[in-house]
Amino acid sequence: MAPSKKKHASSQPRIIPGGFTELSLRFSSDSVSEHKLYLKEHKVRAEKSSHRPLDRTLFVLNMPPYCSEGVVKEMFSQFGCVRSVELRDHPGSSKESGPKLSRFFKPADKQGFKVGYIVFQNPSSVSAAKSHPHDAPLVVCTEQRQVRTGAQKWIQQYTESFSHPEKLQQIVDSFMEGYDKRKEEEADRQKEEAEQQQEDEEGWVKVTRGPKGTKGRPHSEAANKRTLQKEMRKKKRKELLNFYTWQHRNTQKEHIADLRKKFEEDKQRIALLRAQRQFRPY
Amino acid sequence: MKKKLAVAEDLAEMIPSEGHEEEEDEVPVKAKRSKPGEAGGEEEVYHPVKLSRSDLYRPPTAEELNQLKEAESLFHCSLLKMQMEELLKEVALSERRKQQIDAFIQTVTKLLQTVPDSPEVEVSDPSWLSSAVKVPFLLVPKTTKGKFHMAPPASVDLIGSYPLGTCTKPCVTVDLAVTIPADVLHPKDVLNQRYPRKRALYLAGLAQHLASSSDIGSMRYACLHGNRLRPVLLLTPPGKDSSSFTLRVHACPPPGFFKPSRFHPQRNNIRTEWYSELQPSQCEGSGPPTPHYNSSVLGDLLPRAHLQFLSAVSSQCSAFADGVALLKVWLRQRELDQGTGCFNGFLASMLLAYLLTTHRISNSMTAYQLLRNSLNFLASADLTVNGISLARDPDSTAPSLPEFHDAFQVVFVDPSGHLNMCADMTACTYKQLQHEASVSMQFWDNPTVDGFHSLLMTPKPMIRTSDHVFQLCELVKLQSSCKKMNLLSELMDHSGDYVHTALPFILSLLQRGLGQRIHLLTHSLSPDPEWSVESEAPKHKAQPPLSFGLLLSPELAASVLERGPAADNPTAAEFRQLWGSRSELRRFQDGSITEAVLWDGESMCQKRLVPRQIITHLLQLHADIPESCMRYVGSMVDDVIKTGREVPSTGEEGSLLVVQSYDDLSRKLWRLEGLPLSITAVQGAHPALRYTQVFPPVPLKLDYSFFDREKASRSLVPQEGKPCPAYITPITVICHMEGSGKWPHDRFAIRHIRTAFHIRLGELLKKHHNYTCRPCPTHLDVWKDGLVFRIQVAYHREPQVLRESVNAEGLLVVRDNEEAQALEMATMHKPLLTSTLHGLQQQHQCFGGVCRLAKRWLGSQLFSEDITEDTADLLVASLFLQPAPFTPPGSPQVGLLRFLHLLSSFDWRNNPLVVNLNNQLAATDYTEIKNDFMASRESLPVLFVATPKDKNQSLWTKRAPSVQMLQRVVMVAAESLKLLEQQLMDREQIQDVRVVMRPPLDAYDVLIHLNPKQVPLLSQAVDPPTVTFSRGLMAGSVAHSGGALPVIDYDPVSLYLAELRDAFGDLALFFCDPHGGTVIAVLWKPKAFIPMPFKTSQMSARRVAVTGEEANTIPNVEAILEDFRVMGKGLIKSVEARTEKWSF
Predict the structure, then answer these.
(1) Are β-strands B561-566 and B231-236 bridged in parallel, bridged antiparallel, or unpaired?
(2) Which A residues 172-231 touch B at CB under 8 Å?
(3) Is the peptide bond before B141 cis (omega within 30 degrees of 0)?
(4) Cβ distance of A263 and B1096 shorter than 8 Å
(5) Rounded to an integer, what distance in angstroms lies between the CA atom of residue B615 and that of residue B598?
(6) Chain B 627-656, CB below 8 Å of chain A: which residues?
């Protein structure tokens, strides 16, 4: 970073409306053109997550696809020690909770431009990054840090996609163990709830909020719909059709109305086709 | 009707008030969908009809009731009736046009009546004519006796379709008969072409007179139906109307001048001595009969009588003119209405007259019924065997029907009883007519077909109708074949027209030779020659090449063996005579010894050309036509999908191999023991398993030294710095597991259980069959027979589980989502489609071939991302399931042409394409689909394909194509079709059908050129590469099991494309030919380059430009171009940015 330090005195950080600082990024030192990163301290009103502490997190926009979390970590450690790096497709709150999955089971990431949340050790690093001059670009691929792209990367990816069946089986087994445990806990909880709703010795029932009844499965939307339909069908079955003269007359009327409607529809269709000159045979 | 109109107007007023919102909604959609320059036909939008209650339920009038009932009972719907009415309006002549015509006729008539007399000269002396006008006659032999002089015509009358009111657009021709005065002719002139020559001289005289007038636009000669004995003079009006109609001047003898009995088909009117210019021979007798000559002279005598007859008939039937017009349109779309031996408008009117006079149709029928009945008659009556006659009570001299049949192939006798109006028609043409009529009747009755379009709107050129087509190019050679076939007296009868003399004999020869292999043999009708009055009549050879079309019968066409009668059978001699030296005695497995001909052909694509071998052999043997004269366009396009070194193949054999290997695997899977749950179904889900993979996977043997090894499993891994290894397609197989209570009810858990199944299956296959396997969470790859099968375990309730979620109130809600849809697509719809199409391939041999060609075209034109493989297969399937007005394609080439025609001519905006797989949809389903489609058109995919399992969503085309891409596909398809048909039919063109497979690259903004070394499928490219790279393959037989796992599904090009689309998908579109394309074409999205206000969610690859207080973002183009290079390191050769095209 020697050359960039020299220029440091002469150039200023560039700040655009909206409070973002512009930072340049080059793939390698002999690249001709550069991407612009936009960074700002992470600031949200309602987020209490511990892994994005408000004072120490840097929010970075437009991270090119070849910057992996490791590369970003190294690149930004020039501003201070980096605790963690999180790259995401879109800005937003942190990951949804769920069982921890091994890398083989995670859905493939989109290899596009990312948004980064960089957590530093010290709050001072955030401001150091923000005051970095815009004409001293960060460099992704250097002598010390080779970043693989293209054919090299694909071969590496292909090689890494192999997993030994036994290892895979282990992962599966441990996950299923966890799953069974969770399942059991759930069942226990439900049992407990069910017990609570039983009459106690003196004949009292404890009424609680939450799912009613002892059914293990929650109500489903489909079941509701089905009952409604059943009712409707029942009603319909009771009706007599074409029994009275007026009913017969009505059916005939409906028929003519139907024909008329069809005629009108056809007419419109023809008008449409005519407008498109579709009747010229040649 | 008035009342109804008023209602319609009311409606129009009513709708705006409530439809206003809709309209406003429309505007942005339209703006988005139509490109600025091409908003042409897209303006109209279909709105669902809204009728108020009072309109629908008001009491009907009797008239309205009748009309509605008629529409309901006569037509599938009133739509067809209205469509026909509209069509008739389009082809009818306008009043203005009629006035023009009448005025021009008057001028010409006046001019004609002032023709000056001229002194009498010998017939063979044309010196009285000025040099600017030539005689429209081929003078062979040169001289004839007789005197001739010019005189004003005895009368000038209108004849033909114009006075009858059956004249239709386009090519409006008005016929004018000019009667040659009786003193110019002599009753003996019928002999030895004296009358035809005088007639030609008279026309030349008229032309000379008219040439001086300024009221005539242009003047040309032509021949009536290509008959050189009957020249006519074509006049057009001067000025800008010159192309709007033509006046055809016929010269006729005075009515009754010749006795009709002289033209009996068994009489001779051309003396052999005169024709062959020999000394009169001693032998008595009048020589061979000259039926064709007789009928052409007789034809001149009768036009007025015919007109009278037809007007009498048409005056009784009000719909006569409309019926004829419809029939003419039908004939014209089938290219049957023009040329030598055609079924022209005159015959159409005569046919209707015949049906009316024989009371097969009644006078009160509508035009629609007239058309239907006449087609029905044509389909059922065979005029080549049982001729028909319009003569009520012919006089005793008139020939009988058997006498006509002896002389002509098709017999339809005119009202006088003397003339066969179909004298020039070949039996093949009539068979074609009959075939067309019966095909039309079939689909007309089918309520699922758009009858109107197929019947009257779709043109059927020969190249798109016939499975194979061949052309005879140098027609001069037919002269020698006349000699070889001993046709001298027929040649005399045809007055030296050797092409039409030889044609019927060649046709019957081919018919005999091809026999059961073909359903139908058709030939093009040579167009009427036309030439200017200043030049000599063109020679017979000057006409364009004769084209013949074959409609193959799929089971027999490709058989290599022609089995004849037993050696001692008397018919054996006949067989030997037909096949000449190719016929040999062979002993068959059943013990019989018979005559047989064995043709060459190992692979399917060679066998498809057996008809070509037969035709070449027969023409050479019997008609003396060398192979060089013949141009066979049966499989020119197949080259682009041809592979194989020793035996060229278009993929049928390869696909079969894959399917066999798959069947074996499936059997083995079924038999596996030791799985916790049993297998309920094994289904293929890959195009190769339905014979439609463009280049089916080939069993490979690997050279291990070419690869690196992965450490743990010793699997092969591509080596850096070497060319990319050969691409191995994984063939997807779905393996359904039995449902059980043990399956968890959780998405992640199901995924893990599936993995466990993959591992277990892999272990078992390795243990029992020694297949190398590689289990993954998503699939299990099995290396077998040099192929890779990718087995995916599926659990039928998984999509359901993915859809379920519990909301805050604890209610279980089912919501559709993309993940579930994708899974359903992969595990249910794709296997189903694969098995259904596999079944279709069993019914139609060349289904796979057509799919392969169509997809090759789509790929090479860079459309394979937009029209996906499954969509393309479905589109091709529709060509087979609903071929109307054609028959199912019988060769890949004709299939490709129809595919292109479907893409370019189908009205995607207003119609759903219904693919009736397995014939599961009934007529009511069609209307239902159509109505659903109409009701929610705007929200449905632009290219809408409905199948029995998917009636109103069009699953396969949901993602792509977009409106703009479809527009481009339609445009390119139309252009390709035009170009390809020209290439195939026109011998003058530079012969290179690959032209249609080379995409125009000038439309794109950036071209990324790839390094051919890293393109694994390079050898599949349209233009085969000059250099080849070693890709780690070895020759030799393939081991069935064992060995190290190869590099599977590793294609740098598609990996690169995926990365590019992920990163820059919002900014640009990326196109590439998946079959060995070495260039990636990039098109910027115009909208991406409009400066946008700064937004944290839309910053990908953009930079900020600050103007004052505003921060706008624009794409960082230089950096993006650099990224193209960075991300494709090792794969790309160069990035060519065409900055001059960029407009931002």
Answers:
(1) unpaired
(2) 172, 175-176, 179, 183, 210-211, 217-222
(3) yes
(4) no
(5) 14
(6) none
Q: Which residues of chain A make contact with B676, given a CB cutoff of 8 A?
A: none
Among B223, B258, B293, the domain-final residue is: B258
Confirm or reject contact between A246 and chain B (CB < 8 A): no
* B375: CB partners within 8 A, 6+ apart: B330, B437, B440, B441, B444
- Whether the Cβ atoms of residue B410 and residue B433 lie closer than 8 Å to each other: no
Tell how far CA A257 is from the center of its chain: 51
Residue-by-residue DSSP string for B312-355: HHHHH-TTHHHHHHHHHHHHHHTT-SSSTT---HHHHHHHHHHH
Do B976 and B1003 lie in one domain? The reply is no
> Per the structure, how many domains does chain B have?
5
The number of helix segments (H) and strand segments (E) in chain B equals 35, 35
> For an interface test with B, which of A149, A160, A252 has the most B Cβ atoms less than 10 Å from its Cβ?
A149
Kindly report the CATH number assigned to the domain that includes residue B249: 3.30.460.10
Q: Taking all residues of chain B, what is their mean pLDDT, rounded to a whole number?
A: 84
The burial of B289, by beta-carbon neighbours within 10 Å (0-12 exposed, 13-18 middle, 19 or more buried), is given as buried
**Which residues of chain B neighbour A172 with C-beta distances below 8 Å?**
752-753, 755-756, 759
Tokens linked to B18: 């409530």
How sure is the predictor about B50, in pLDDT bands with cuts at 50, 70 and 90?
A: low
Interface confidence (ipTM) of the complex: 0.81
pLDDT tens for B523-575 read 988 888 888 888 888 888 888 888 999 999 888 888 888 888 888 888 888 88
Place of tokens 């926009």: A61
Tokens representing B919? 């014939």
Q: Do the Cβ atoms of B143 and B124 come closer than 8 Å?
A: yes
Is some CB atom of chain B closer than 8 A to the CB atom of A18? yes
Helix H, strand E, coil C: the string for B255-282 is CCCCCHHHHCCCCCCCCHHHHCCCCCCC
Question: Looking at domain A2-151, which of 3.30.70.330, 3.40.1000.70, 1.10.760.10, 3.30.70.270 is its CATH number?
Answer: 3.30.70.330
**pLDDT (average), residues B1022-1039:** 83
Helix (H) or strand (E) holding B1008: strand B1006-1010
Contact at CB, B87 and A281, closer than 8 angstroms:
yes
Taking the C-alpha atoms of residue B1020 and residue B438, their distance in angstroms, rounded to an integer, is: 42
Alpha helices in B412-497 (DSSP H): 427-444, 451-452, 462-465, 477-484, 488-493
Bridge partners of B730, per DSSP, are B788
CB B1076 within 8 A of CB B1090: no
Q: So what's the pLDDT on residue B33? A: 36
Integer Cα distance of B536 and B134 in angstroms: 6
Going through B752-904 in order, the beta strands assigned E by DSSP cover: 772-775, 780-784, 787-794, 804-806, 812-814
B6 burial level (CB within 10 Å; 0-12, 13-18, 19+): exposed
pLDDT number for residue B946: 93
Alpha-carbon gap, residue B961 to B981, rounded angstroms = 26
Residue B734 has pLDDT above 90, yes or no: yes
